[in-house]
Write a structure and sequence with these properties.
The complex is a heterodimer of chains A (159) and B (63). Chain A has 159 residues and is mainly beta. Chain A has one domain. Chain A is 5% helix and 41% strand. The longest helix of chain A is centred in the first third of the chain and has 8 residues. The radius of gyration of chain A is 16 Å and the shape is globular. Chain B has 63 residues and is mainly β. Chain B has one domain. Chain B contains no helices and 6 strands. In chain B, the strands form 2 sheets. In chain B, strands 3-4-5 form a 3-stranded antiparallel β-sheet, with no helix packed on it. A two-stranded antiparallel sheet of chain B has the order 1-2. In chain B, strand 3 and strand 4 form a beta hairpin. The chains are: A mainly beta (159), B mainly beta (63). At the A-B interface, strand 1, strand 7 and strand 8 of A face strand 4, strand 5 and strand 6 of B.
Chain lengths: 159, 63
C-alpha cells in the first residue's frame, strides 16, 4: 500500500455540479458563504490517491492533540482564474494561511494530507504527499505554496 | 528558550538539539529534534509544498 499525490477525479465531476464552493462571492450555495475545507493526515501505509472520494478515518493519524478529521483550512482568498491564451486558462486557489497541527504527538509515520470539503459530506478535493514524518510534543506545519497559476495548491487548467 | 517536551517545558540548555532539512522538487522540509539523555522528547517539522497535483481539462469546441 502506498499513497499517491493526485487530484481526486471525483472532485472534477463535482466541480461541474457545483458541489464545492471555495468562494464567498458565489451564490450557488448559501449566498456569500464559502464551504469549510479541512485537512486530515494519513499514515504511510494508507492508500490515498485519485480514487479517494471522501474523508475517511481509516488509516488517519491518531495521537495526542490530533482530532479525527484534522484541522480547518483558512480560506480568506477567493479562487482566481487567468487566461494563458485565447483558448486556455488556469483556475487556482490556495489556503490563505499555513495548515498547522499544534502540540501534537504523532508516533506513527505519516506522509499524506487529504484536503476535503466538510460542508459537502466530506467530499475529497486532493491528496498531497511529502516525506515521511513523526511529531513528538511539537507542531507539524504545512506551509502553502504561492497562490499563482503555476504553484497554487489547487489548479485546474484548460488546454 | 523553553521547549515543549514529553516531560513538560524544559530549557533548551538541558537538551541535545538536532535539526535537518530536505529540499527537492516536491517539498522543502525542516525539522527540529530535542533529546534528553538520548531520549527523543520533542520533534517538530515544517513542510513547504512545492509540487502539487495539477489537472488539465480539455475545453470543448463547437463546429
Amino acid at each position: 500500500m502506498a499513497n499517491t499525490q493526485s487530484m481526486c477525479t471525483s472532485f472534477l465531476g463535482e466541480l461541474l455540479s457545483s458541489t464545492h464552493n471555495f468562494s464567498s462571492a458565489n451564490p450557488a450555495h448559501t449566498a456569500n458563504t464559502a464551504d469549510t475545507f479541512k485537512a486530515a493526515l494519513y499514515v504511510t501505509t494508507a492508500t490515498m490517491n485519485a480514487s479517494t472520494t471522501a474523508y475517511s478515518a481509516t488509516n488517519e493519524v491518531s495521537g495526542t492533540g490530533y482530532s479525527a478529521g484534522g484541522v480547518t483550512v483558512t480560506n480568506a482568498t477567493n479562487p482566481a482564474s487567468t487566461n494563458s491564451s485565447t483558448t486556455a486558462g488556469v483556475g487556482y486557489w490556495t489556503p490563505s494561511a499555513s495548515i498547522i497541527y499544534s502540540s501534537v504527538t504523532l508516533s506513527t509515520a505519516f506522509d499524506t494530507m487529504l484536503l476535503y470539503n466538510s460542508s459537502q459530506s466530506n467530499k475529497a478535493v486532493a491528496v498531497y504527499t511529502f516525506g515521511s514524518q513523526t511529531i513528538t510534543a511539537g507542531n507539524f506545519t504545512l506551509t502553502m505554496p504561492s497562490n499563482t497559476t503555476t504553484t497554487a495548491l489547487v489548479r485546474l487548467s484548460t488546454t | 528558550m523553553l521547549i515543549t517536551t514529553t516531560k513538560g517545558e524544559m530549557d533548551d540548555s538541558l537538551l541535545e538539539h538536532k535539526s535537518g532539512s530536505v529540499d527537492n522538487d516536491v517539498e522543502y522540509t525542516t525539522w527540529d529534534e530535542y533529546y534528553l539523555n538520548g531520549e527523543l522528547v520533542h520533534r517538530s517539522a515544517h513542510v513547504t509544498l512545492k509540487k502539487t497535483p495539477f489537472t488539465d481539462l480539455i475545453g470543448a469546441t463547437l463546429g
